[in-house]
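Re: the 307-residue chain
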Amino acid sequence: MFILNPDPYSLPAYRIGPFRTADLSINHNLPDSCVFDDYLWERFNGKKYFYTENGRHAINIALSSLFLQPDDVITILTTTGNFYISGCVTKEIEKFCRWSREILPETKALLVNHEFGHPYRELSLLKKLGLPIIEDCAGAFFSQDEGCHTGAIGDFAIYSFPKMFPIQVGGLLVINNSRGHVRVNEPKQPLLRHIRNVMSRHIILKNEIIAQRIYNYNKLSERFGSLGLLPRFDLTSDSVPGVFMFRTNGKRIDLPSLKKYYWDRGVQSSVFYGEEAFFIPVHQALTESDLDYFFELMQSFLQTDTR
């Protein structure tokens, strides 16, 4: 039995990322390891990469190398083409210049967001425009398109570790094509050592992480589909999902109320603004019972929502 109306001081804590309170002590006691560096060197074929404190810092470094002026524009492109974009991205751009969702005469660079682990499919066409490209792979650490271009076409690729791994900090900036001097101050010790140790612990579980996320996605697709709530994204063989997003078209669901309903019961979630869609966690630390809990919350909301 699940308690769907708990005491507010006794809520569970389900995050979009896989970090749990228990990971705090586990991560603290990990031995020193450079396994993750070996993985990065092989994966990026010896290209330059730098650790950052988070994904926002990685974006900031990439932008700072472009010598932008206040009236310049960074054009943001996304997998879905929907106007939704995280404020974490736009706020970094606004420190340098303006941003737009369209390519304008003032556009000086493109920021391509591989949304929620689903690759943007037209990178090769964008490359022909001759503009610098920053690939936002924050939620797409393991995802690839058919030609394995994800993270490799842009001049820069940025990653955010907490979106895929049970870690509280850490990002990565990969330089595929530097058009000028890139100045990077990596995290100081012992933070850098902590990031390396945690990532080394979990990168060896790569196959298990991918398989579990795909399993969870398919299981949630099946459960929510029984309520007429279908996945927003088709899960292709090269995508590793960052969230489970479902459509609510035709159900006339009050999405802000649904968001409050989930948060009030300990589940981080959000509306995919601009569409009738909503997303919840799908990460590898979730158990079968956790997925059942998400489903029962949705079922309960549909039964009580009077719209």
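Residues 14 and 267 are 5 Å apart (CA to CA).
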